[in-house]
Amino acid sequence: MTDLTWPSTQPTLHADGLTLRPWRPSDAVAVYEACQDPEIVRWTTVPSPYLLEHAESYVGPMSATAWVEKTAANFAVTDDDGALVGSFGLVRMNPGQGVAEVGYWVAPAARRRGVARRAAAAVTEWALRDVGFPRVELLAAVDNAGSRRVAELIGFTLEGVLRSAAPGRTTRVDLAIHSRLPTD
């Protein structure tokens, strides 16, 4: 990572009543339960059916390896009570090109409380300000009005639509591409 400042250990971020921290093995059951939600399955790339083994891998070796290899930065998001409310992070990073993509899901019980807006803003600010990425992207299915609204609320610019850009559950989907730069 030539011009980026990548910490040796994953930081903990704070965002208006939310804590974004590294995953722990004890988070696996909460992740498993959240990923049974049809909306998470619909709008993300989590495996379906989502098994406990998937969650155990995600909160353990998958996220730890991604951090060390600088391919992703996955954060558990908890509320003031310590309850898991979502998964947020930089899901794809290309340090050579200076681009990272924000990706996330919000647990069903935590929706409509501003979790996505607050946590996505925190991850984006960290990526731009502290790590030094010159560009952060947020891609959302064109029909995913909630995620597209989050991008708009936290200052991302809609750049266009990538047609048939991702495999969906039954057919390929168009993705709206949004970006933020440090100067935005």
UniProtKB/TrEMBL annotation:
Gene3D superfamilies: 3.40.630.30. Pfam families: Acetyltransf_3. Transmembrane segments: none annotated. One of its GO terms (molecular function) is protein N-terminal-serine acetyltransferase activity. Coiled coil: none annotated. GO terms for cellular component: cytoplasm. It comes from the Bacteria. Residues 18-184 form the N-acetyltransferase domain. InterPro entries: Acyl_CoA_acyltransferase (IPR016181), GNAT_dom (IPR000182), Ribosomal_N-acetyltransferase (IPR051908). PANTHER family: ACETYLTRANSFERASE (PTHR43441:SF10), RIBOSOMAL-PROTEIN-SERINE ACETYLTRANSFERASE (PTHR43441). This is GNAT family N-acetyltransferase. It comes from Pengzhenrongella sicca.
